[in-house]
Amino acid sequence: MPSSISNSKKIGAALLGKPTNFIRASLILLLILVAVVLGLEWTSLTVATHSSRILSRSAREREEVKGFRRKPGGPKTVLLYGNSLLLEDVEFPRLHDQLQSGGWDARSLVVVQTSYLDWHFGMRRLFDEGCNPDVYVMILTPTQMAVDGYAGSIFAYYLMRGQDIFEVASATHIHPTEAAGLLFARYSSFYGLRADLRKNLLRYFIPGLNELRAHLIPLAIKPPPADLVSREVEKRMREERANIEQRGAKLVVVIPPVADPNDHSDVAIQACQRAGVAVLAPVSAGEFSPDMFTDGFHMGQAGAKIFTDRLIPELLKKINNQETQ
Asked: pTM to 2 decimals?
């Protein structure tokens, strides 16, 4: 008959072995989860940037502007930044070549759906990454300069610093849950680019979706009241000018045309001038007929050519004047 002491030893050994098995199983499970997360991150980043012309450009340009500044003995530097209006309305390769001929090294940074607040906070991250050209050129509409909207998770992934999350939440008036989502999106390509992944999948399975959306969902929002545009644009441009000039650079604002002739471009121009910011509007509001726009917001090829033709000499003159001030 086995002794009670022997049974106790066996039970004790079994109990001692259980924690070891549990820890081993937990570590295996943790490694599997880490592998899944890393796989999702890599897959989402690869698929998103390879399936979307815009995201591919954004990813490439984000790398190109890191550390972008004038090198000793090198050309003067200028960064053009904005949303899809910069992508569609400006023939950047041609603009780049003309600026290069004028002694400027030009880069662009496009992040879709962005407006003023996205870039206000985004500048901080660019500064931290060593981006400090001689001139910054902001390309936004008066509405985009005045409203409190932001681009959501794609803004967080490409432009937001993690430490700014409380300021971002306050400025955009978002719920804490949404703010937590932005913080995840800042560090996760899967979370930050998930909305664009869905759009790309829909476009793949539903050909012609973009054209259908352009007819069903207007891209241009109704302009806010003129007095709000005047007040907010002046205040924000003063602040942006001060932030940029602290780093020894200059700010230029370019206002692209939209189909709505009542977009308060004249009000925004006057507000920029009061703020001491150089401003260009190569095409006047209402000058282009609606058929020059593909969706009421972005210009077609003919409009982009005219806009770029006018922008090149005006921008060269303006940034050269900024450089001598």
From this structure: 0.81
